[in-house]
Write a structure and sequence with these properties.
The structure holds two protein chains of two kinds. Chain A has helices spanning 2-7, 12-15, 23-57, 168-190, 193-198, 201-230, 239-265, 270-298, 306-324, 335-357, 361-390, 398-418, and strands at 72-80, 83-90, 96-104, 108-111, 114-116, 120-121, 126-131, 141-147, 152-157. By secondary structure, chain A is of the alpha+beta class. The longest helix of chain A has 35 residues, at 23-57. Chain B is built from five helices and 18 strands. The longest helix of chain B has 9 residues, at 304-312. By secondary structure, chain B is mainly beta. The chains are: A alpha+beta, B mainly beta. The A-B interface holds A 82, 97-102, 106-115, 118-119, 132-134, 146-152 and B 20, 22, 24-30, 69-75, 190-191, 193, 197-198, 205-206, 287-288, 291-293. The structure holds copper (II) ion (CU). Copper (II) ion binds at residues 109, 150, 152, 158, 163 of chain B.
Chain lengths: 420, 313
């Protein structure tokens, strides 16, 4: 039996491309193709059958909940003169009907309200609840939604403040906030380039390692912030999974882009390329940071006081240093500095405006994660750059270790200003 | 009679709350209101003599009856005769009261009456099994407002779910005939977080804001008020003062006032009349309670004779 199988293996005819297959053999070939297709389709068809029976007959498990399961989450709460506007999403398994609304100050009061498009919100559907409530700036409030099935969902407004509307002056001041927090500090940092150039070689590596320290701190900080905001992302959108996706995709994408650029331009301009990669990653990070700042402002959770703006400015000053660190010893046209600064800094402006005007925890988390991924990629690249230039042993050099530690220390100290 | 809308326009700054004033109340999407059929009727017909001096009542107890506690918000309630609060029981001092409790629930229940009666009619030991019934019998004494409620453990749950009501015992000689209203003050904690979500006159938040109680100018009104929630309540009438009879156990008013704090299970008879027509709020003076539903409106109208006279002119 075993001998006959070995004599004429089934796959032999397909491997023989010099001879035409006999008609009987081509029939067997078609037959095996059908078998392959059938084996691919069979599980799908079985699955469809199972789904059909599940939908028609139920699971057969008597697991009906004793009380309705409803979940309403607040995506955003905006405050306009005489009006509280809550953007909500139904993240429960069933449609939900908002039947009553209360506004809490010292205690709760039932209030009139309207829901658009409809008080009955389908699963994953969104609605806007408008409450004509004469709120007072600086006071804390609680927005309470009661469903037809007596479930109660609340959102706290820590400090009431008017939500910026897309007017010219608000946009201008949000843009200015972005300039203070993102653009100015980056360019100030870049302005250190001549000073960095004048330094001897070992100091250059000191600053390169300081940059790595800054970036590692920034990356961890961004991840922490992303995890915090992830709690605000509506359940089905899986905030933590978004972080994983943003983080890994951004690393892979940056490698793909920089790999392509390297192929085209050779490895000669690798210092400048690295600088651009850092600028891009810091830019994405600043977009996420801008979204968070603008969002916190819109949610009335921070007062954008002078001290806070000053803190962010100092904090981000280090980002400019990070951008130019790889090109300290390279020759390039000065125009590149302008581009580097803009790539790293400008997204902050877009972030603060977008965050304040249409805050969404989802986007904030995604951009913070993408930024963190970009930073990780950059840290790897700088390290490789250094190993290429002066060997792996240089990483453990006391001077360079001190640089790395100094980077962390600078971020920690300037971070004291921005931690509210 | 002027409509609520007309009154609101006339009174400018003092809109009835359901007109979207933004001052006191909600506007349900689709402008949904309490069904007028559902509104707890506070009117008490004049007392009648009991045949052979015996008052017989049957209270059918059911669990998980959907009760609309605020427009659009339905909670599973435990009820006597499908009503929350339970029906007002009324007898005259000295009558024999027979109350048959028919337990149609899945849990044991009972009725505990306040007042003077033998120990074995107190409703603490006279627990009625599911599907069973029991007749509580005692002589009505003394006159006044006596709360009744289920007293099966855990009592807090049995009361909170709606098993309470008012027993009015009239004095033998009767009280001065007047327009009479029964008002139970209570509250509902829907999410069981220890904080009530709605407060109500007679079991539904804002029901007398949706459907104001019409009074006639100069008409004498007697209001029987009972606090059935475990917080203090302060019945307060706007534009008026009332004669206060604590617990209703005296025929002499104790005080002439417009606020009286009723502690837990405390009750009082209030007597008053309105001298001017218009809309007047009647509320609990605990602001939180008012803002969450313990408020309503009296619509005081001119006597029919006067209206007819004006129309003739
Ligand atoms: Cu009971």
């Amino acid at each position: 039996m075993a001998g006959t199988v070995a004599e004429k293996p089934v796959g032999t005819s397909t491997l023989r491309d010099d001879a035409q297959p006999a008609p009987a053999e081509s029939g067997a070939l078609a037959h095996s193709r059908i078998a392959i297709i059938a084996s691919a389709l069979l599980p799908v068809m079985l699955l469809a059958g199972i789904l059909y029976f599940l939908v028609r007959r139920g699971t057969g498990l008597n697991l009906a909940p004793p009380a309705p399961i409803e979940r309403v989450e607040f995506e955003r709460v905006e405050l306009y003169p005489g009006e509280i506007r809550a953007h909500v999403i139904n993240t429960g398994p069933e449609p939900v009907t908002i039947a009553q609304v209360q506004v809490g100050w010292l205690n709760r009061a039932s209030w009139e309200f309207t829901v658009t498009p409809n008080a009955t919100i389908p699963r994953l559907g969104r609605a806007i609840v408008r409450i004509p409530y004469p709120w007072v700036a600086g006071e804390p409030y609680e927005v309470v939604l009661l469903t037809a099935n007596t479930l109660v969902f609340t959102h706290e407004i820590a400090i009431a403040a008017e939500t910026p509307v897309a007017g010219g002056s608000t946009l201008a001041s949000l843009a200015l906030l972005g300039v203070y927090v993102g653009v100015i500090p980056v360019f100030l940092g870049i302005g250190w380039l001549p000073f960095l150039r004048a330094l001897p070689q070992r100091w250059y590596y000191f600053f390169l390692n300081l940059t790595v320290g800054l970036l590692v701190f920034l990356g961890v900080d961004a991840l922490h912030e992303a995890l915090e905001s992830a709690a605000r992302v509506p359940g089905p959108y899986q905030g933590v999974a978004l972080i994983l996706i943003g983080l890994s995709l951004s690393i892979l994408l940056l490698y793909a882009i920089s790999g392509r650029v390297k192929d085209r331009e050779g490895s000669g301009g690798s210092g400048l390329l690295l600088a651009y990669t850092i600028a891009l990653s810091i830019g994405v990070h600043n977009l996420g940071e801008g979204l968070a700042i603008g969002g916190a402002y819109a949610l009335g959770e921070i007062a954008t006081g002078t001290l806070l703006v000053l803190g962010f400015t100092l904090h981000n000053l280090t980002e400019g240093v990070a951008v130019v660190a790889p090109v300290v010893r390279a020759r390039f046209r000065w125009g590149h500095l302008l581009w580097l600064g803009l790539i790293a800094g400008l997204p902050t402006i877009a972030g603060t405006m977008a965050g304040a005007l249409a805050y969404s925890a989802l986007w904030s988390v995604l951009f913070l994660a993408v930024g963190a991924g970009a930073i990780i990629q950059v840290v790897i690249e700088i390290t490789r750059h250094q190993i290429r230039e002066s060997g792996a042993a240089s990483l453990a050099n006391a001077f360079n270790v001190a640089g790395f530690a100094a980077g962390l220390a600078v971020m920690y100290v300037t971070g004291l200003f921005v931690t509210v | 009679m002027i409509s609520v809308e007309q009154a609101a326009r006339a009174n400018g700054h003092h809109h009835p709350p359901t007109l979207g004033s933004g001052l006191y109340q909600y506007e349900h999407p689709g402008r949904r209101r309490f069904d007028p059929q559902q509104v707890f009727n506070p009117e008490l017909p004049p007392p009648t003599p009991a045949p052979n001096g015996i008052r017989e009542f049957t209270l059918v107890l059911e669990e998980d009856q959907m009760h609309e506690v605020a427009p659009g918000v339905k909670m599973p309630a435990w009820t006597f005769n499908g009503s929350l609060p339970g029906p007002v029981l009324r007898a005259t001092e000295g009558d024999t009261i027979r109350v048959t409790l028919v337990n149609k629930g899945r849990l044991p229940h009972s009725i505990h009456f306040h007042g003077i009666h033998p120990a074995k009619m107190d409703g603490v030991f006279e627990i009625v099994a599911p599907g069973a019934q029991f007749t509580y019998e005692f002589t009505a004494a003394p006159f006044g407002i006596m709360p009744y409620h289920c007293h099966t453990m855990p009592t807090s749950q049995h009361i909170h779910n709606g098993l309470y009501g008012m027993l009015i015992i009239d004095p033998k000689q009767g009280r001065k005939p007047m327009r009479e209203l029964a008002m139970v003050m209570s509250a509902f904690d829907l999410d069981r977080d220890g904080e009530a979500d709605f407060y109500a006159w007679n079991g539904r938040a804002f029901q007398y804001a949706d459907h104001p109680v019409t009074l006639t100018r100069g008409e004498l009104v007697r209001m029987y008020v009972l606090n059935m929630f475990e917080e203090r309540m302060v019945p307060h009438l706007h534009g008026n003062m009332y004669q206060l009879y604590p617990s209703g156990t005296s025929l002499q008013p104790a005080e002439y006032t417009d606020v009286k704090t009723l502690n837990i299970a405390e009750r009082a008879v209030l007597e008053f009349q309105y001298d001017f027509p218009g809309f007047y709020m009647f509320q609990c003076h605990v602001s939180e309670h008012m803002e969450q539903g313990l408020m309503g409106w009296f619509n005081v109208v001119e006597p029919k004779a006067l209206v007819a006279q004006k129309e003739r002119r």
